[in-house]
């Protein structure tokens, strides 16, 4: 077993407990006797990387929103892709996972969004709780499971600008969490009816790309019933052109990479664009 560092004792909201699935090597610390406190454990790699990123962020105080997201997301390039980083379900207690040793596509967004306005360890953790959970309640049912939750759920993190970018944007009503056969993707989680707008890939042309901004959150739309997107990343304009910066599960990658944006989107159903606030 790897050695873990007890990082700090952080006060969190009453009733809190944390996010996603089962394949996470982080060992959560037990709650303390105080009901409004939770001990946060992070491995040494995560602690060191967090401090390095906070120092990097502090070195460019004048950076705008897009530059900040570019800077913070770039710090994770090369980080291994690891699926199902979060722990919790309808039958498994939710745990507050903070682990930079590996990322899936959505925890990558979580961490960068939480770091965006953080200057200290505690501020990052508090931001992460608000980013992942409705009302900051660390609980499976309060977790923001779907990409469009960021623009729909309380404590809105971003604005859905998809419809503004193209006259070819399509809006459909989806029943999130309900498969075509009626089963749930996540048992115990309610089905949510939501209007989801996306731009079909054949219409993601130069005009659309020109309107995208560095730091925009990109969701890869899916036609599957019950889901809004199947992948996420950041739109970043680099010296070599626009890229989708993403935690890639493709066999040739399996890490955080910059994928040429137009070529990536061409082979997908389309995109949903959320603009960070």
UniProtKB/TrEMBL annotation:
Pfam families, per database record: AmiA-like
The record's annotation in SUPFAM superfamilies points to: Cysteine proteinases
Task: Give the taxonomic lineage as stored in the record.
Answer: Bacteria, Pseudomonadati, Pseudomonadota, Gammaproteobacteria, Enterobacterales
Source superkingdom: Bacteria
Provide the protein name.
Answer: DUF1460 domain-containing protein
